[in-house]
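Colleagues,

For the teaching module next term, I've prepared a clean inverse folding example: a structure given as tokens, and then the sequence designed for it. I'd like students to try predicting residues themselves before seeing the answer, so please don't circulate the second half yet.
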């Protein structure tokens, strides 16, 4: 936090100095009654800096645990800088002794946004580089050695820049192929022995009382606790406290994507799909021609999928497989490389050479922009499943069908085909329960590098 405060202090001062020169040197044709000398601004710059830093602190910009992504922190900076600028403008009207040009404040607003955001990007890159080399890494202990714990361990081990080093597992149950350090009752000894700074509870079946006991017993060690949420925790944002006859009750409200929110999301989808179709029209035409020239069969592949409220619809893609590929599925269905009800295989023999390229960079998905325009899909949402997959769903898994399916969604930007099915469904449910336009915007931005690198796509 101290490093961020120092960075911000320097950049805030630079922002106001640049704003001063922009106002009185470049925009000098907007002539004030008198041009203040720079030293007059130095006298109030200390106060301005303190005000900005205090507002940043109040809205939580320096809370390290709050931000899971760089874009969230930059968004908070935008809010903090805007609020600080409005606060200074308010002081101009309330306290006449405090005199700063309104144009200087206005210019400092956008300059500050640019400089501080760029500073955060540099800080983020340096931090990831240092973590990948072992600096500032936290020793993490996972409680629960099931599939979820193993998946978390794999992610921590594959990306050192996440900032964690796995010391091992604790579990009361033996799991084949996983070595555990001991039982849950030995947690205090393990914390001291391995200098654990973060504990991740990955056993969703662990009783609440046991979880609370572990947290209470270990709080004095100063460790950080993270808990993988179960289904009830995922819907916590929709739970209100009510009562009947003095008896407290928890009421589960409707999902957020209803009424006005649904209208806002649909309007956004129409606008974004029209813009995207216009931008990608050369690519759409080029690959339509390439598909036609390189293999026999139709250009577009129309596949029956399940959409909003379990209604079937025809989803369009560029054909990436040989003609009549669906008829060959029974021969290779046993080769699926994903868990759960989804069929995925890296080296699918039905793919054409062009189709393999399109799949890698998600070019085959572009015709779905028309599905979005016609209201059958959304830009962001759970991926539409096949009817045979939905037949195997449990009741809680059908929750992901309560909203329009999307071209991209939370699981695409969190591992794509690398995620187990149950984890994918939980990500979808979390998205549904906590929907916002900002969440959609973040997913769209995070989709860009995932598509470019082709990570987890097959």
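(Answer key — instructors only)
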């Amino acid at each position: 936090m101290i490093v961020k405060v120092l960075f911000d202090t320097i950049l805030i001062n630079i922002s106001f100095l640049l704003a001063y020169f922009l106002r009185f040197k470049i925009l000098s044709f907007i002539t004030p009654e008198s041009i203040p000398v720079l030293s007059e601004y130095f006298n109030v710059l200390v106060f301005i800096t303190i005000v900005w830093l205090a507002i940043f602190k109040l809205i939580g910009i320096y809370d390290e645990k709050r931000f899971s992504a760089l874009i969230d922190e930059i968004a908070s900076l935008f809010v903090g800088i805007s609020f600080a600028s409005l606060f200074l403008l308010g002081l101009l009207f309330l306290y006449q002794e405090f005199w700063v040009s309104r144009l200087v404040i206005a210019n400092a607003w956008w300059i500050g946004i640019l400089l501080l955001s760029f500073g955060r990007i540099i800080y983020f890159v340096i931090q990831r580089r240092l973590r990948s080399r072992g600096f500032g890494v936290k020793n993490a202990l996972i409680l629960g050695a099931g599939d979820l714990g193993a998946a978390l361990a794999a992610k921590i081990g594959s990306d050192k820049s996440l900032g964690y080093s796995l010391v091992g597992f604790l579990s009361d149950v033996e799991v084949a192929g996983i070595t555990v350090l001991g039982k849950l009752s030995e947690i205090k000894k393990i914390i001291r022995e391995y200098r654990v700074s973060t504990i991740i509870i990955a056993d969703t079946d662990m009783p609440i009382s046991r979880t609370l006991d572990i947290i209470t017993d270990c709080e004095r060690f100063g460790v950080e606790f993270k808990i993988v949420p179960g289904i009830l925790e995922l819907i916590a944002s929709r739970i209100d406290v009510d009562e009947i006859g003095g008896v407290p009750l928890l009421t589960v409200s409707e999902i957020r994507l209803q009424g006005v929110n649904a209208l806002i999301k649909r309007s956004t989808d129409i606008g974004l799909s029209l813009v995207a179709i216009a931008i990608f029209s050369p690519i759409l035409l080029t690959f339509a021609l390439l598909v036609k020239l390189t293999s026999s069969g139709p250009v577009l592949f129309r596949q029956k999928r399940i959409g909003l409220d379990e209604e079937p619809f025809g989803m369009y893609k560029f054909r990436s497989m040989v003609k009549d590929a669906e008829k060959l599925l029974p021969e290779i269905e046993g080769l699926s490389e994903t868990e759960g009800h989804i069929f995925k295989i890296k080296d699918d023999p039905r793919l054409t050479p062009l189709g393999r390229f399109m799949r890698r960079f998600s070019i085959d998905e572009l015709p779905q922009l028309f599905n979005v325009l016609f209201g059958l899909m959304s830009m962001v949402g759970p991926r539409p499943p096949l009817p045979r997959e939905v037949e195997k769903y449990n009741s809680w898994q059908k929750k992901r069908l309560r909203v329009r399916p999307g071209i991209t969604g939370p699981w695409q930007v969190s591992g794509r085909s690398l995620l187990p099915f149950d984890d994918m469904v939980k990500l979808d449910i979390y998205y549904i329960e906590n929907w916002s336009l900002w969440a959609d915007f973040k997913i769209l931005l995070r989709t860009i590098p995932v598509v470019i690198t082709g990570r987890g796509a097959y």
